[in-house]
UniProtKB/TrEMBL annotation:
PANTHER family: MERCURIC REDUCTASE (PTHR43014), PYRIDINE NUCLEOTIDE-DISULFIDE OXIDOREDUCTASE RCLA-RELATED (PTHR43014:SF4)
Active site residues of this protein: 446 (proton acceptor)
Domain Pyridine nucleotide-disulphide oxidoreductase dimerisation: 354-453
Top-level taxon of the source organism: Bacteria
Alphabetical UniProt keywords: FAD, Flavoprotein, NAD, Nucleotide-binding, Oxidoreductase
Binding residues annotated for NAD(+), in chain numbering: 183-190, 273
Disulfide bonding pattern of the chain: 48-53
Chain ranges of the FAD/NAD(P)-binding domain: 13-330
EC number: 1.8.1.4
Family: Belongs to the class-I pyridine nucleotide-disulfide oxidoreductase family.
Source species taxonomy: Bacteria, Pseudomonadati, Pseudomonadota, Gammaproteobacteria, Oceanospirillales
Cofactor-binding details, from the entry: Binds 1 FAD per subunit.
Protein name: Dihydrolipoyl dehydrogenase
Top-rank EC class of the record's enzyme: oxidoreductase
Length: 479
């Protein structure tokens, strides 16, 4: 490309990525200035709507319906039904495209044409990007909202034709007969359980032996035990080799006890984590400093990279890669870009994450691992209440961590049916630094799932009372 055919744009702000985070940043900056461009590589519509949150929840909902049918005999309502894989996937794509993606595209369509640029951006010098092969963008401030991509280890090279990731699994025409799911993180567990419930012979291969989102050993054990009653899981070990023949994709896996298992599958879903797309931005040309470990540091209050007018937001940061954080971070980055060099530190929300498995897993506020060694008491109960008994959903456990001296709720780990709702109540309490006593002052209906929240807080309150008595006794004896 000759210099003369290169188109050059000079703007104040360049946003890389038109996902949840980039659009969040765009909506703020575009209200203040016309001097901006948002650069998007690949299809518009966002990861969440196209290949993330929404198609995965549409699949899980279909699987829930299949599961209700398969278990309805218990309630004296025998039912029979056959899963039509093609219809499940067609409906998923229709709902996804007509509702969630279309909504997003309508918003993108309304964006002023000269604010949008298509192509892959990379830094070629501080303050300068190349987009595709024929456009250069000079900007004063940059928001890197370029998301992340699935990682596929090279051990899967020989079976690549049968490998799926979350980017491709929702495009299947029909459900496979069998699938190996690699990983035991949120994508593996959500999609693995859904596929199993839809009748796909599913085997899940983990690595570490634990579900790492939960941090209390008893919670980890309970979660694995509970999911393993339904799913075929090898929790700890590693895939040693793979090969393909007429039967399908073969997976040879060595368990941590040294035993090897070899099985053949129609498809292999690799869900072993995601990596930030920042590594493809040519950051070495951006002018920002790297740590000794070769990474760029980001301040979570401003999303700024060291002292530079470069901001990183959303999944690109590796920090809490979930939707509401991506949206918040895009807006925090925008505020700080608009006010640069003045910092506008944001108050971050307490962490909240939900696995839409059955039972669900939820983590709110500070984890047990973060609090270990501090003065805490733990409200700890099986995840059950009269309402859960009525639903025949009595698996799981709930732990709530209280500051032992003040009674303030610091965090919680949950494993239970529709735990998302109690998790949000706890998130509200933690956001407002509420004590267990304050939460216990609200009315709780009978019989509701919220009675479990009441009971676990009563358990924590009682443990705290005993803790304070011991503390007072100790003070008296040491006077
Ligand atoms: C299967 C799955 C299920 C999920 N489920 C949930 C859920 O239930 N709840 C939840 O909270 N979160 C969920 N998430 C996470 C959520 O989807 C993400 O946190 C969120 O979408 C991240 O938004 P983002 O703006 O950071 O990135 P994205 O939406 O990925 O946007 C980044 C954009 O930047 C573009 N881009 C990349 N590099 C360049 C470049 N060099 N130049 C120009 N453009 C570039 C990309 O093509 C992409 O369009 C899920 C994710 C997955 C994969
Ligand atoms: N409900 C939700 O909020 C939701 C749902 C889906 C995805 N997401 C987001 O997407 C991100 C990515 O999800 P993910 O599940 O891919 O990543 P993850 O980091 O949650 O899990 C990856 C898992 O793969 C395992 N692993 C890594 N290498 C392996 C190997 N070689 N063999 C076997 N196991 C291996 C890890 O030990 C880990 O358990 C999440 O961090 C999450 O933020 C969120």
């Amino acid at each position: 490309m000759s210099e003369s055919s290169m188109q050059t744009l000079n703007v104040e702000y360049a946003i890389i990525g038109a996902g949840t985070s980039g659009l969040g940043a765009y909506s703020k900056i575009s209200r203040k200035t016309d001097s901006l461009v948002m650069i998007q590589d690949g299809p518009y519509g966002t990861t969440c709507a196209r290949v993330g949150c929404m198609p995965s929840k549409l699949l899980i909902t279909a699987a829930d319906h299949a599961h209700h049918l398969a278990t309805s005999d218990f309630f004296g309502v025998p039912a029979s039904g056959r899963v039509d894989g093609r219809k499940v996937l067609e409906r998923l794509r229709r709902e996804r495209d007509d509702r969630f993606v279309a909504n997003n595209l309508r918003y993108v369509d309304k964006i002023t044409a000269h604010h949008k640029l298509e192509g892959r951006a990379r830094f070629i010098a501080p303050g300068r990007l190349r987009v595709g092969e024929s456009v250069e963008v000079n900007a004063k401030k940059f928001i890197l909202a370029c998301g992340s991509r699935p990682v596929v280890n090279e051990v899967f090279e020989p079976v690549m034709a049968r490998v799926l990731t979350s980017d491709t699994v929702f495009e299947l025409e029909d459900l496979p007969r069998s699938i190996a799911v690699i990983g035991m993180g949120v994508i593996a567990l959500e999609l693995g359980q859904a596929l199993h419930r839809l009748g796909v012979e599913t085997t899940i291969y983990g690595r570490s032996g634990t579900i790492n989102a939960l941090t209390h050993p008893a919670m980890q054990q309970e979660a694995l035990g509970s999911l393993a009653t339904e799913l075929d899981i090898y929790p700890s070990g590693q895939v040693m080799s793979t090969w393909e023949d007429a039967e399908g994709a073969w997976i040879e896996y060595e368990q941590s006890n040294g035993q090897r298992v070899t099985k053949v599958f129609d498809k292999v879903l690799v869900a072993t984590g995601r990596v930030s797309n920042v590594d493809r931005l040519g950051m070495e040309h951006s002018g920002v400093e790297f740590t000794e470990a070769g990474v760029v540091t980001v301040d979570p209050q401003t999303m700024r990279c060291s002292g530079h007018p470069v901001f990183i937001a959303g999944d690109a940061t590796d920090h809490l890669p979930v939707w509401h954080e991506a949206f918040d971070e895009g807006r925090i980055a925008a505020d700080n870009a608009l006010n640069y060099p003045e910092a506008v530190p944001a108050q971050r929300r307490p962490p909240l994450m939900v696995f839409f498995t059955d039972p669900q897993i939820a983590i709110i506020g500070q984890s047990f691992r973060q609090l270990e060694g501090q003065e805490i008491v733990i409200g700890d109960l099986p995840f059950t209440s009269p309402r859960h008994v009525v639903w025949n959903k009595i698996q799981g456990r709930i732990q709530v961590y209280l500051d032992a001296r003040t009674g303030v709720i610091l965090g919680a780990e949950l494993l239970g049916y529709q735990a998302e709702h109690l998790a949000h109540l706890l998130a509200l309490a933690i956001t407002h630094s509420m004590t267990a006593e304050q939460v216990l002052s609200m009315p709780i209906y009978h019989p509701s799932a919220e009675e479990l929240l009441r009971d676990v807080l009563i358990d924590a309150r009682e443990k705290r009372r005993r803790y304070l008595i011991t503390l007072a006794d100790h003070a008296i004896t040491t006077v």
